[in-house]
Amino acid sequence: MTTKRIKGFEDSYVVEGKMALPYTYFAGRVGSKFITTIRDQNKIMGVKCPACNLVYLPPRQVCDKDFTDIRDKWVDVSNTGKVENFTVVRYNDKHLPRKAPFVLALIKLDGADTPFMHILEECAIEDVKIGMKVEAVFAKETTSTILDIDHFKPEAEKISVHEINAARKQWVPVDEPDTEGKRKGGKPDMSTPVIITAALTGAATMRNQNPAVPYTPAEFAEEAYKCWKAGAAMVHVHAREDGGMATHDHERIRATHDAIKQKCPELIVNLSSAVGMGKTAEQRISQIVAVKPEMASLNTNTMNFGIVDRKTGKIFIDYVFENTFTMLQDFGKAMQENGVKPEIECYDMGGLDNAILIGKQGIFTDPINFNFVWGVAGGQQFRAEAFIAMMNALPPKANFTTCGVGTDEFPCIMQSCILGGHMRVGLEDNIKMPNGDLAKGSYELVEVAVAIANALGRPVATTAEARLIMGIKKR
Amino acid sequence: MAHKKNRNVGIIGIGQTKHSSHREDVNQPELIHEAVSLALKDAKLTMKDIDCVVHGNMELFEMVHSPDLWHVLGTGAYGKECIRITTGGTVGATISCASDNLVASGMYDIVMAIGFEKLQEGHTTGGITNMACPLWFRKIQAGALTGSSAYDVEREFGVERADKASLTYRIIMDKHAGLNPNAHRAFGLEFSQIDDLIRTSPKLVGNLKLIEMCSQSDGACCVIFACEKKAKEIAKTPVWIRDHITVHKEENFNIFGYDRKFPVLKTHKFAAENLFKRNGITDPINYFDVFEMYDPASWWAIDWIRDFFGLKGDEHLKLIEDKEIMIGGKMPINPSGGVIGSNPIGATALIRVAEAAMQVRGNAGPHQIPTPVNHALASGFGGTMWTVMTMLEKELNW
C-alpha cells in the first residue's frame, strides 16, 4: 500500500493498495457429475425437471421455477446445438481462455432448454450468426473443468436420412425376372435403396474396447434407436448378460429383442444364431424358434474363428466355429417353419456354395439374402476381385450385404454400395471411425455408411423398403 | 414500551444444515437448499406458501456479487419478493428482525429468513480488509479476533482466575456442542484439561488462545416467520417474537492492544438495558430460561454475560465457575454449543434465534434443556461494535 500525491491535488492524498484474493469454488455433486461425464465419456448431460419438463444445462440440483429437487433426473443432451447469442471478446487478459479476438457464444444444445456459454472457434468471427448450428469439440487433454469441452465449432451441414426419405418417392420393386447376367460387368441397379444394418455388439466386443457397447436390454434399445435415427433399417443383435457375456438365455434374448421393438417398432431385428463361442446347436437355434425375430443369421461352414495378432500371426484364441451341413439344414428348416428370414453368412466362396448346395432341398425362399463377411481370422480378407466373384456366383434374385472386421469395414461396404449391394456396420465388426477415433456408438458408423450412400447417390432404405427388398413381412 | 407492532409474529419453521468445514459436496445454493427444505418440512409448508424471502450473508466473503440471485436455486425465491440484507456478523439477527418487521407491518403473512455462509470458498479478506487503513480512520473490520477482552478480564480478576474462567466456559461450550448434532466442532474436552490447555494452546493475539476462538464453518439456517393468525393455524407451538433491538456505534478498536479511551464493546450493555427496560424486565437473569449468545471467543463471552444481564462485581464469573451456565444450570447459555461450536457467519446470528426458538418449542433434541423454557433471549454481534438482541416467548401474555 502506498500513499501518493496527484498533480493538481497536492492537498489530497490517494492511497493505492493491492490485494491477492485466493478463492475456491465448489461444483457440488451435480456440477461434478456434469464435468466428469464430459471428461470421461465425452458426453454432455443435463437434468430434466419432471414438474415443468425443462431440461437444464448446465445441470442444477433444484428447479428454480417450481423448487423440485431434480438432482437425480439426468438426461443426455446432444453435442450439437444452436447459437442463441454471442459476443466478441476484443481484449487480452490473463484470466481469459483464448487470445483476443475470440467469440463467446450462448449455446443451446439440442435436447436442452437453457443455453450455456462457451468458446466458438473454427469459424471467422464475421461468419458467426445467431441461430447457427454448432457442435462440441472435446479436449484432448482434460482438466476437470468446463474446458474439457475445448470449444464449439460450426456443425457440418447434415440433413437427416429420414428427411431425405420423406421427400422422395418410395421405392417399389420392378416385377421383371433377374438373370445371372444382369449384374455382370459391374452395372448395378443404383436406384435400389441401400439397406444399412447396424451390428450392435457381436459376441466378443467388450466395453473395455469401446464403452458404447450395450449390455442391458435398455442399452440395446437406446443404441438401436440411435442407429435407426442415423439411417439403419436393421439391427443385428447378440444379447448380453449384465456383465457383458454373450447369452443363449431365452428370457434375456427376448427381453433385449422386445426392448428394441418397443423403443423403435419400425426397426428390423436380426438375431444371431451363432450366439457366441462354445454354444451347442440346440442353444443356438432354440432361442430363434422361441423369440421368432423377423430375421436371423445362418452360418454356412465349419471354420477357424479365432483371435490372431494381425501383425505377428500369434494365436490368442484358437476356436473352431462348427456349422455342419446338418446344422445348416436344420437351422434353415427351423427358420422357414417359424417365419424367420435367414441372412446367410458367407465367410468365403465355399460357404456360399454350401448354402446353394443345401438350399437345393428347397429350404430357402426368394429373395435369398446373403452377407459376405470379410476379415475374420479363419475366413478370407477383403479383396475387391473376391467380392465380385462372390457376387457373380449368387443365385438369381438374391440380395447381398457385406461386413468387414476392423479396417476391412469401410472398403467392403463401399464396394457393396457401388455394386448395388447393402451395407452392415457396427461395433460387432469394428469399434473405430475411419480416422481411428473410437466410435461413439454403432450409430456413428451408420452415419459413415449413410455418407457413402449419399456420395454415390443411392437412397438409404427405409425399414418398409428394406422389408420389401429382403422379402420380410412385418410382424 | 416495546417497539410498536401492528400484529404479533411467530416462528413456525426452522431448518439448519450440519455445520462443517468440509462441504465439498455442495455448492452455495445446494447448501442453502438443505436448510430451506428442512425448514419447509418443519413447518409443513411448500415454497408456494412463502410470501417473501429475506436473504443474508457476509458481504463478499465468498467473493460472489449479488449472491441472492444465484442462490434462488436454493432459496426458492423465483418470482417472489426477495430482499438481501448484509450487516456483517449480525446479519443473521438482522434478517430475523427484518422478517419480524415485514410480517408485523402487515406487508407479508409468511416470510422466510435465510442466513448462510460457505467459508471454505472465497477468502474473507475480500470482504473485510479491502478498505482497512488505520491511518485513514478505517479500522480493520475483523471484530472477533482480539486480545483486548482477555486483557480486561485478567486486569480485573487476576490472570489465574480469568484464564480458568475462560477455559471453563470453553469446555462447557464443547460439552454442549457434543450434544448438538448440527454443531461443527465438539472435541470431547474435559474440565480436567483446563491447566493443560492454558499452557499448550497457541496464542493468537495477546492471551486469546486458539482453543478459545470460534471456527470458520460452512452452513445455512432458515427460519420461517408468520403472522399470529397463520402461525396459530400452521404451527403446533409457534414461538412469539416479543421484541428486538439493534444498537450501533462507530467502529473503533485496536486489535493488538488496549486503548482506555476507546475501551470495550458497550453496545451490548446499552442494548440490553434498553430492551429490558422498555419491556418492564427488571431481573433478566431470573426472567429468561435460556440465552443463545453470539460468543466469538470465550474471553468475550465471559465478559459479555455481565453486560447482557447487568451483573455486578464477579457475579458473571461465579455463574461460569459454578457451571450455572450449563444445560441444567440456573441460566443455561448456548445449549447449542454457541458460535465457538459452529460459525457459518451469515447464518450464525440467525442460528442463535433458531436455537433459542427450538428451546422454547421444547424439541431442540439432545441439547434440549430439561426445565420448561418460556422466555428465551438471543444476541447477535457484528463487525467491530454493534449488537442485535431478540426476545422470544412461549405464550402471548406479555
Brief summary of the model shown:
Chain A has 475 residues and is α/β, with parallel strands linked by helices. Chain A has helices at 28-41, 161-167, 180-183, 217-230, 250-263, 281-291, 325-337, 349-358, 384-392, 409-418, 442-456, 463-470; strands at residues 2-6, 9-16, 44-48, 55-56, 74-77, 80-89, 102-109, 116-120, 133-138, 149-154, 196-199, 234-237, 268-271, 295-299, 303-304, 307-308, 315-317, 320-321, 341-346, 369-374, 399-404, 423-425. In chain A, β19 (341-346), α8 and β20 form a beta-alpha-beta unit.
CATH domain fold name of the largest domain in chain A: TIM Barrel
Run of helices and strands of chain B: EHEHHEHEHHHHEEEHEHHEHHHHEE
* Total separate domains of chain A: 2
Number of helices of chain A: 12
Strand percentage of chain A lies at 15-25%
Structural class, judged by helices and strands of chain A?
A: alpha/beta
Average per-residue pLDDT of chain B, rounded, comes to 91
Average pLDDT number of chain A:
91
User: Which blocks of ≥5 consecutive residues of chain A have pLDDT under 50?
Assistant: none
The overall number of domains of chain B is 2
Could you state the CATH homologous superfamily of the largest domain in chain A? Aldolase class I
Question: CATH homologous superfamily of the largest domain in chain B - what is it?
Answer: Thiolase/Chalcone synthase
In spatial order, strands of the major sheet of chain A run: 21-20-19-14-13-12-11-22
**Individual helix count of chain B:** 15
Largest interface: A-B, 23 and 32 residues
State the main characteristics.
heterodimer; A: alpha/beta; TIM Barrel; 2 domains; eight-stranded parallel β-sheet; five-stranded antiparallel β-sheet; about 25% helix; B: about 400 residues; alpha/beta; Peroxisomal Thiolase, Chain A, domain 1; 15 helices
List the helices and strands and how they pair.
The complex is a heterodimer of chains A (475) and B (398).
Chain A: E1 2-6, E2 9-16, H1 28-41, E3 44-48, E4 55-56, E5 74-77, E6 80-89, E7 102-109, E8 116-120, E9 133-138, E10 149-154, H2 161-167, H3 180-183, E11 196-199, H4 217-230, E12 234-237, H5 250-263, E13 268-271, H6 281-291, E14 295-299, E15 303-304, E16 307-308, E17 315-317, E18 320-321, H7 325-337, E19 341-346, H8 349-358, E20 369-374, H9 384-392, E21 399-404, H10 409-418, E22 423-425, H11 442-456, H12 463-470
Parallel strand pairs in A: 11-12, 11-22, 12-13, 13-14, 14-19, 19-20, 20-21
Antiparallel strand pairs in A: 1-2, 3-4, 3-5, 6-7, 6-9, 7-8, 9-10, 15-18, 16-17
Helix pairs in contact in A: 4-5, 4-11, 5-6, 6-7, 10-11
Chain B: E1 9-16, H1 28-43, E2 52-56, H2 67-70, H3 72-75, E3 81-85, H4 91-104, E4 110-118, H5 124-128, H6 148-157, H7 159-179, H8 194-200, E5 203-205, E6 208-209, E7 218-227, H9 228-234, E8 239-247, H10 267-278, H11 284-287, E9 290-292, H12 298-309, H13 315-321, H14 338-341, H15 345-361, E10 375-382, E11 386-393
Parallel strand pairs in B: 2-3, 2-4, 9-10
Antiparallel strand pairs in B: 1-7, 1-8, 4-7, 5-6, 8-11, 10-11
Helix pairs in contact in B: 4-15, 6-7, 7-8, 7-12, 10-12, 12-13
